[in-house]
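Thought: the user wants the 3D structure for the chain below. I'll pass the sequence to the structure tool as-is, report back what it returns, then summarize two notable features.
Action: structure_tool
Action Input:
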Amino acid sequence: MSNGNRGTRSGMIRLRSLAVAGALGVSHLACHDPANAPAPPPRSTEAAASASAQLSSDTAATPSAAERAPAGFTAEKVTGEARAMGTHLAYAAFTTPKVNADAARRAFDAATHEIQRLEALMTTWRSDSELSRVNAAAGQGAVQVDPETFEVVKEALHTSEISEGTFDITFESLHGLWKFDEDLDPHPPSAAAIQAKLPLVNYHHVHLDTHARTIALDARGVRISLGGIAKGYAVDRAAKVLSEAGLPSFYVQAGGDLYAQGTKPDGSDWSAGVRDPRGPDGSYFALLPLSDHAFSTAGDYERSYLIGNKRYHHIIDPRTGRPAAASRSVTIWAKTAFLADAIDDAVFILGPEKGLKLVESLDDVGAVIVDAKNKLWISKRLEGKLTILKSPTDGP
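Observation:
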């Protein structure tokens, strides 16, 4: 889990998605053309994966928007960038006869404002946010919150239940022990320091009252954060803004969370590159087509440091209070970014065998996992969809 919207994290989300998350996603993304990529080598199970979205142009047989457009109309690709939730936002969309480039850019701005609204609501980096008020009242009483905040916390607790506690929003109770952000400190906390706070990390400390719409934490020192799922939820909301603006083909990305809707004017799907966790920044080893689906990655390379050959990173196992050790990266493909964002952390912590069992139990969800020994695991739903370009790089 991440501190606020950054930092350490563990995470996953429930089988059903929120009604408000009915489409969409975001992340730090770059477009590329796989026509210039190396030819895919024979498929290997001894590989390593990690994910960063990179959109491209895999072919598909679906009718394109351009084919349905009036004669003489040529769709224009429009891109945009912004920053919110402590990460880079990226947008791309194709114009239509009714939505020109200026209107598309206005839609991007509206989507960014929606993400910023949710950030103000759900962050723990501001003392006046709802979650900060809940944390300040720990052990003292319940706090009434906005319906959206309540529903996201409710979903998070259900996720904890189905993930053996590997997703736990009370991970925030460890705040200050591990430092992977601007306060980077390559010195792990002592075992005693971890053990002193670990009893505070348990989602059973969180109590919801649906009728009163309140959240209560039952012990002083317990803190919660939605850093493991808030970006995915925000991506879905941003995508909803773009869809309602009349854009049929677009993507939204926020850090490692991405949602792509529709197909390109030539009928091809959007495509996301699965980042090579031990390769150079921006390198990827596989491509995954995206149309009306989200893509989210949890990787141990994002915020980390090495001591000798041992890597310490921001994805903390709430059961131990230490960086999870079963995976190098997990990429999740799902119908919503909210679901994908939650699942990637849980699967990362559970490891490939238990993680894939969880993935296969969820409707329309797939996974690409690179485990701690650099072995590649692909869920059944992604077999035949994933294109492997090379074997991921090995290393500590």
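Final Answer: Structure generated. Residues 101-122 form the longest helix (22 residues). Residues 1-396 form a domain with the T-fold fold (CATH 3.10.520.10).
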